[in-house]
Amino acid sequence: MDHDVAPALAALLGRVNKLPTLPSVALRVLELGEDPYAGIGEITEVVANDPVLSAKLLKAANSPLYAMRRQVDNLRQAISVLGFNAALTLALSFSLAPESDAGPLDKLAYWRRSLLAAVGARVIAEQAHINEASKCFVGALLQDIGMLVLEKAHTESYADMLVACDSHEALVLAERQAFGFDHAVVGAALLENWRLPECAWRAVAGSHDLTLSSKAAQPSGIACCVYLSGLLSDRWIHSDRVDTLDERFADQAHVVLGLDQAACEAVIAHMDEVLPHYAGLFEVELVLNEDRASYLIDEAREVLVLRNLRTLQEASEYKQRTEMLESRNRQLEARAYIDPLTGLLNRARLNQVLEQEFHAAIAGGWPLSLGFVDLDHFKRINDTYGHQIGDQVLITVSRVLQAQVRQADIAARYGGEEFVLVFPGTEEIKAFDLLERLRRTVAAEIHRADGADIVVTTSLGLATFSGNLADSEFGTPEELIRAADRALYAAKREGRNRTVIYRRAED
Fold it and tell me: How far apart are CA 275 and CA 306, in angstroms?
């Protein structure tokens, strides 16, 4: 920061009695975002303390942006659908949404521009192949937060300034002339005081004046996306200047990120597709140009784009998960927790994870389903074709399990030819459908040995804990496993190759 500016800025912050404070939920969300060991369980626990935020994330998981075939009906399941990074970003966005309190600043217009910029930063990052789209979203969302400080510190003069300026760019110039700095500098200082990640407040600091002059001051990819997002958002705010604003955005995008004209047009088209869904998600009207509205009516195109969005998001999340696992020294973890033959979790790790999910279900009040899987007549395969073929069968079945279960579910080898599947946040009927699909898929696999075709079937038992200790017979994870095991043996008694749901009468 400029040494001449720092004292004036410090004085400004010191004069404001009630600075905007980061909500406690948002602060904890940001801490989780910086923790490489944090996962879905941790963010679920934090968000569960805020009922309004929980409801909004449930709404997000059921929105067309994720195109789920089944309704998501609990928070644990919602965050599993959204993915860790998307849930973090949305949780922070909702937490920071400004209230419509008194003051000269139009809070609705402020939030609209912030959200337009945040969505734009994410789209630009994806187009430029910058693998930090979530951080770009957050940085762009926060880039104008300094306006709230200036409004509180200079209420009357800032009100006159807001009325006199017909554009965001004009407001920035007026702020610099009046105060010696603009709201981006104020916002960066505020975020630094809040101890937000350096990449966030530096991106905010450069959101109106990106330095490209020296290698030492080269901006990060996040800062570039945040800077461009402000230019991009203006085209939806000032619909009478679309052509001029498009030209300016394309020029700056080429200078800053090397994007060509086709890439810039793809960014704008992509924004047209997703803005209606973000508008519904955040319950705020986002201005769209009339000449582009017809594109949004084509439902087939919309569905295709949404599915492509989901695919891109899943690919990004997969890469981030992979990098996270590598940072935790994956080889050591694998030796401790992974079954060497099948690649699934081993029994020791299963016991740990199940204990965590059981207590999370109690805390959150959501269901936890467990499936016990056993290969039918597996001993006959070993005796007839040898243990090497038996191992190949186990490996193939394990791959089917991994392919069929969802990202948030847990698959483990319990021992021998027995497997356990854990479905957090999943009620009994949905878990039963998943197990039945798995049973049919395993039976459709053809294994070959000595010129013969081997068909393997499975018997499955299912038990579900409601999440409420008061109305459940399961008081521990071990009792849940035993119940699923009993249902499994009931399936074998009834003829094998079927799924049986545990009922108390079977005891």
Answer: 12
End of a domain among 253, 288, 319? 319
Contact at 8 Å (CB) between 404 and 434?
yes
The reply to whether 413 and 439 lie within a common domain is yes
Q: Quickly state the pLDDT bin for 422 (edges 50, 70, 90).
A: very high
CB atoms within 10 A of CB 495: 9
Residue 445's domain is classified under what CATH number? 3.30.70.270
Evaluate whether 228 touches 121 at the Cβ level (below 8 Å).
yes
Render 6-56 in DSSP notation, one character per residue: HHHHHHHHHH-SS-----HHHHHHHHHHT-TT--HHHHHHHHTT-HHHHHH
Task: Judge whether 32 and 43 are in contact, CB under 8 Å.
Answer: yes
Same domain, 91 and 29: yes
From the centroid of its chain, how far is CA 492?
Answer: 41
Residue written as tokens 């047209």? Answer: 272
| Of 238 and 67, more confident | 238
Determine, yes or no, domain membership for 327.
no
pTM of the model: 0.55
**Total structural domains within the chain:** 2
Decide if 326 is inside a domain. Answer: no
Task: Tokens 């999943």: give the residue.
Answer: 426
In this structure, the chain runs to a length of 507
296 and 357 inside one domain: no
Contact 176, 184 (CB under 8 A): no
- Asked whether residue 1 is assigned to any structural domain, the reply reads no
Distance from C-alpha of 496 to C-alpha of 376, rounded to nearest angstrom: 7
Q: What is the pLDDT of residue 398?
A: 93
Mean model confidence pLDDT for the chain: 80
User: Distances from the Cα of 144 to the Cαs of 184, 287, 340, in angstroms?
Assistant: 6, 18, 52
Domain-located, residue 328: no
Band of the pLDDT at 100, cuts 50, 70, 90?
A: low
DSSP secondary structure of 81-109: HH-HHHHHHHHHHHHHPPP--SSSS-HHH
Reported as a pLDDT band with limits 50, 70 and 90, residue 3 is very low
Burial letters for 393-426: b for 16+ Cβ neighbours within 10 Å, e otherwise?
A: bbebbbebbeebbeebbbbbbbeebbbbbbbbbb
Q: Domain span at residue 149? A: 6-207+216-319
The answer on 353 and 491 residing in a single domain is yes
How far is it, in rounded angstroms, from Cα 31 to Cα 7? 29
